[in-house]
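Support case: user asked for a sample of complex input and structure output to validate their parser. Sending the pair below.
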Amino acid sequence: MKNRRDFLKVAGASALGLSTLSAGNAFAIGEHFIPADQTKKKDSVLEGTRWGMVIDTRKLTPEIVEDVTHICREKHNVPDCQLFEEPKKNKEHHEIKWIWEEHFHNAFPNMAADFLAKKLEDTPFLVLCNQCENPPCVRACPTKATFKRPDGIVLMDFHRCIGCRFCMAACPYGSRSFNFQDPRNGLVDRKPTNPDFPTRMKGVVEKCNFCAERLAVGEMPHCVEVSKGAITFGDIGDEHSEIRLMLEENYTIRRKVALGTGPSVFYIV
Amino acid sequence: MLDKALNGSKSYWLWLAGLSAIIGLAFLVYMKQWTFGLGITGMHRDFTWGFYIAQFTFLVGVAAGGVMLVLPYYLHDYKAFGRITILGEFLAIGAVVMCLLFIVADMGQPTRAMNVILNATPYSMLFWDALVLNGYLALNLIIGWKLLEAERNGVAAPKWVKPLIYLSIPWAFGIHTVTAFLYSGLPGRGFWLTAVLAPRFLASAFAAGPSFLMLLCFIVRKNTNFDPGEKAMKTLMKIITYALIANIFFFGCEVFTAYYSNIPEHMAHINYLFGFGDHSHGVLVPWMWTSMILMITAIIFLVQPKIRNNEKYMPILCIMVFIGTWIDKGMGMMAGGFVPSPLHHYNEYVPTVPELMITVGIWCVGFAVITILFKIAVSIKEEIRA
């Protein structure tokens, strides 16, 4: 309660300050206003025409899968559904998933063969948002709260999402999660595990963002860094990129390509 | 004309008071949802639209069903419907009000509802759905009100009402088509991804809407001096018969396409709903069979003119049709779409008690709206006759 009261005090004081200064501020902002496309980007920003990912499932081990899913949850403040008080049973009903493990026959239900290679049955498959070239979720969203950037990343605006969950019905990969309750209920002491990344609120949808916040500061996605080479990230729109070379040299598959969504996540099996 | 709503018998007020009590209780439960979130419902990650959207889908149909009175009366000059067309329009208003409330109840962030207008997105079917539903509500309010007013004053309705009436006819088809497009345009949901979904929605709507209206007609006739007319009721029964047969026919087309083509993605959902195959113990299996048996039995009776036209059997037949289509297009439509999930997991859904209470509350709002509007319409018709 104390925190809340402190917050209100600060908020009240700021509101007072803003109201007295607002006229002057508006003028100041107007004078120095620069449209986003005219600002200079830092040289370290990673830019691409279409970001993509290759997951070499031959290199995936249970340990790497654990590291990958763990770092993603920690760095993006993804709640741990086992910490939820409600619902008492089936806590995973409210689970938030960004990148997680599935069996081959779940990741590729339309490819599940009767005589599947044993090693594929046993291999952990990592699934995440496919950052589709033609994303059905973006088409479905009635508020443009989910949108595709020019570099191909499909992002969420958590402040605009109305929580209608149309995007979840539209996604053929089950890659989206809804905050059925305050996600901080699933964080220890309700505190973010990574203060540099925002926690979300109840009633909005979320999903993997291809670590857009990392690309903006010139870093590779978290999962790539801890994958011990099993995950490659790069610009698949650039024919000279390392990832394109990998795609040329290896036979890769994508999830449900027949639906025309154009997934940007490739799997080497 | 509102004065007619404020001047009723004791049982009228008791009924409204009862409804208000339930609505009040449901609102308290909704406050729990407001603070905690949609987690108080039985919905989950793999089953993201539940009881609320099931009601919504069904009720859009009921709303569209009103056109089965408007169309014959205005386009074919079918006089027998003249007396009750207004009831069809007012039923549509009540149904759309419920639809909008169910949408709001289902939103994770209801305070942002206006984002749909502020950030209008024409490629989203939900944007169009919001547009056509509110438009349909406005059309029916204006048309119903103006016609009743004219009738009361013994004058012809203003000329500009006529084009609105003509507009409301395709519009009624439109609301349910767009609602079907919410589902049928999604890749990777085999149960919904079918061109026959919109026609099937319309067919079941034209059975469910008129059967609900028939039941209301019986209630009105019992409690007031207003008689909807025998001929009108018999014609409505005929419409229900054809519509219900069309609904079952379309479903049969679905079943044929799924099973003859033998495509697992399309069969899996029907298997789940009706209890075939590997995952045969779905919670909805008894419900789906109840729905099918109710609809098919109703057809067997309805095609016999002696039974269909007998007022003794009309109410029970209408109840059968109503419940059958309610299960079919409500929970059946949701569960069929979401189970199995896109990753082929079988995660079922059962609504929770708070969720059911909120649902009942919204139905009561709808009943209250329909009661008040019907009270106005019937009082005025009684007044004219006297």
